[in-house]
Design a protein that fits this description.
Elements (H helix, E strand, L loop, with lengths): L5 E5 L4 H11 L6 E6 L2 H15 L4 E5 L8
Parallel strand pairs: 1-2, 2-3
Helix pairs in contact: 1-2
Length: 71
């Protein structure tokens, strides 16, 4: 059975999303975690904090903004 080794987490710069990223990074089989965030600055800060707290360099920022532009 193949195990998941890469994850995309939305809202990864705060709260549950950030904690999920941290917990997944502590699993040795996890190879890559994509941090889906709206703000590039906040995402970068979260990435640094996660790298410092887990000792792993497996995080990549993905800027996602799915708010409606029509409103």
């Amino acid at each position: 059975m193949t195990k998941n080794r890469s994850f995309l987490i939305t809202g990864a710069n705060v709260g549950l999303g950030k904690e999920a990223a941290r917990q997944l990074a502590l699993i040795p089989e996890t190879e890559k975690i994509y941090l889906g965030c709206r703000s590039r600055q906040k995402a970068g800060e979260a990435k640094k904090e996660l790298e410092d707290s887990t000792g792993r360099n497996i995080f990549e920022v993905v800027i996602l903004d799915i708010r409606s532009q029509g409103n």
